[in-house]
Amino acid sequence: MDNSKLTISLLLVAFLLIIVTLVTLRKNKINVKFAIIWFIPAIAIALLALLPNLFIKFAQLFGFQTISNLIIGFILVLILFLIMSLTVIITGLSKKNVLLIQEISLLKKEVEEMKGNGKKNR
């Protein structure tokens, strides 16, 4: 695959990732903060396609033998970034879930106590 085909392929992947993210965002299937997490890899892929010389210099700087090895490493870093971001989000949601369960339990107890006091007053 020559450079022009690789560039077109990478730009297509970036474009599709942006379109899919925008469509899901528009349909309210994801929040803006989740969409931003998906825009970052799309922008990184587009930069890779548009600035290949920069990535060749990065490959040499970091000791990669070929640009394909750098791309694989780059993809692994992006995947790790996505996993870490989603882990942080899931942790926050888990904490909120625990708080909601505690609040519901307290409200149920309060309602039961009010029902009990209502029966005693009759």
Keywords:
mainly alpha; 122 residues
General description of the model:
This protein has 122 residues and is mainly α. The chain has one domain. It is 89% helix and 0% strand. The longest helix is centred in the last third of the chain and has 55 residues, at 67-121. The model has no long low-confidence stretch (mean pLDDT 88).
Helix content: over 70%
Spans where pLDDT lies below 50 across 5 or more residues: none
Number of helices: 4
* Rg on CA atoms, Å: 25 Å
What order do the helices and strands follow?
A: HHHH
- What's the mean pLDDT score? 88
- Alpha carbon gap, first and last residue: 85 Å
**How many domains comprise the coordinates?**
1
Percent of residues in β-strands: under 5%
What structural class do helix, strand and pairing data support?
A: mainly alpha
Give the structure's gist in a few sentences:
This is DUF2304 domain-containing protein. With 122 residues, the chain is mainly alpha-helical.
Which secondary structure elements does this structure contain, and how are they paired or packed?
Blueprint: H1 3-26, H2 32-50, H3 52-62, H4 67-121
Transmembrane segments: 6-25, 32-51, 71-93
Keywords: Membrane, Transmembrane, Transmembrane helix
Organism: Faecalibacillus intestinalis
